[in-house]
Automatic annotation (TrEMBL):
<dbReference type="Pfam" id="PF00866">
    <property type="entry name" value="Ring_hydroxyl_B"/>
</dbReference>
<protein>
    <submittedName>
        <fullName>Phenylpropionate dioxygenase</fullName>
    </submittedName>
</protein>
<keyword id="KW-0223">Dioxygenase</keyword>
<dbReference type="GO" id="GO:0051213">
    <property type="term" value="F:dioxygenase activity"/>
</dbReference>
<keyword id="KW-0560">Oxidoreductase</keyword>
<dbReference type="GO" id="GO:0019380">
    <property type="term" value="P:3-phenylpropionate catabolic process"/>
</dbReference>
<dbReference type="InterPro" id="IPR000391">
    <property type="entry name" value="Rng_hydr_dOase-bsu"/>
</dbReference>
<dbReference type="InterPro" id="IPR032710">
    <property type="entry name" value="NTF2-like_dom_sf"/>
</dbReference>
<comment type="similarity">
    <text>Belongs to the bacterial ring-hydroxylating dioxygenase beta subunit family.</text>
</comment>
Length: 163
C-alpha cells in the first residue's frame, strides 16, 4: 500500500491525465479508466443528490458512455461537423483519502473551466468535477464522476464532449 502522500499525488495525477485524454480526444483510453459499474453524471440542479429519481443533463453508465464515444468517433456525425475541440483548465484537486477501516474510495473535488469550440462558436463553462475513485488490480479507476456546472439549471446548448 502506498503512503497517504503518494496516494494523494496519484489521485491528482490521475485527474490531470484524465483531462488531457479528453482534450486530446483519446476517448477509448478515457473509457478504460472507469471501474466496473462506473457512471458519469452531470446534474441538472445545483446540489442535486439523486440521479435516479430526477432529470439530469447526463447520467451515463458504461454502456451509454461507450455509445457516446462511438458516435464521437464517427467522421460523419452530424453534431460534429465541424469537429469539436475542448480544453480543460483545472485547479489543483482537493483529495480526501479513505479513512482507515472505511470504504476504499478516494474522493476528489476539482474546480475547473471548460472550453469547447466548434466552427466559429465557443462555449465556456465553470464547473466542479467530483471523482470517486477505487483501486482495481492496483490501478485507480473512476467509480463515479459527477460534473456540476455552475449554471446547470440554466438553458444550455448541447455539450458535445465530456467535461
Amino acid at each position: 500500500m502506498k503512503s497517504s502522500d503518494s496516494m494523494r499525488d496519484a489521485v491528482i495525477e490521475f485527474i490531470y491525465e484524465e483531462a488531457r485524454l479528453l482534450d486530446e480526444k483519446r476517448f477509448d483510453e478515457w473509457y478504460e479508466r472507469f471501474a466496473t459499474g462506473g457512471v458519469y453524471w452531470m446534474p441538472m440542479v445545483p446540489g442535486q443528490s439523486d440521479a435516479a429519481n430526477h432529470a439530469s443533463l447526463m447520467y451515463e453508465d458504461l454502456v451509454m458512455l461507450r455509445l457516446r464515444i462511438e458516435r464521437l468517433k464517427q467522421p460523419h456525425a452530424h453534431s460534429q461537423q465541424p469537429a469539436s475541440r475542448c480544453l480543460h483548465v483545472l485547479q489543483r484537486p482537493f483529495v480526501n483519502l479513505p479513512e482507515e477501516g472505511g470504504e476504499e474510495i478516494y474522493r476528489a473535488h476539482t474546480p475547473m473551466i471548460y472550453s469547447e469550440t466548434r466552427g466559429g462558436e465557443q462555449w465556456i463553462y465553470a464547473a466542479t468535477a467530483s471523482h470517486e475513485l477505487v483501486l482495481e488490480n492496483g490501478d485507480l479507476r473512476i467509480l463515479k464522476k459527477r460534473v456540476e456546472l455552475l449554471n446547470c439549471d440554466a438553458p444550455l446548448p448541447a455539450i458535445q464532449i465530456f467535461l
